[in-house]
Design brief:
Layout (H helix, E strand, L loop, with lengths): L1 E20 L6 E22 L2 E8 L3 H23 L4 H18 L5
Antiparallel strand pairs: 1-2, 2-3
Length: 112
């Protein structure tokens, strides 16, 4: 006889490295890394009372699919900004890129 509560979480990450190439000159005119992350959680409840038991689990969407979708959306928004809108929105992406680089550098431990 007993009851238990539990849960799980999962996190996914994806990065897309873009190069925008001028097809007439073959010159690389822009490079950027676009990221997508997602986290999902599930909750579980199980119980047994006088030999009768049940296990119920509530899951959310898989984080891998959500991370891929986030990266694709961010990639499309960046390409529209870079190639169509030009300078009007690029500062937003420059700030994201700066934060991404700092986060990436902090993950690496170097002997100094």
């Amino acid at each position: 006889m007993g009851f238990s509560l539990g849960g799980k979480s999962a996190k996914s990450y994806i990065a897309v490295d873009l190069k925008v190439v001028d097809t007439e000159t073959s010159e690389i005119i822009d490079t950027r890394t676009i990221e997508g992350t997602s986290e999902s959680t599930s909750r579980a409840f199980s119980g047994n009372l006088f030999g009768i038991g049940d296990n119920a689990e509530q899951k959310k969407k898989a984080p891998v699919g959500k991370a891929i979708r986030a990266a694709v959306i961010n990639t499309a928004e960046y390409l529209e900004c870079s190639m169509v809108d030009k300078d009007q929105c690029i500062e937003k992406f420059n700030k994201k890129e700066e934060r991404r680089r700092e986060r990436t550098k902090s993950e690496l431990s170097l002997d100094e």
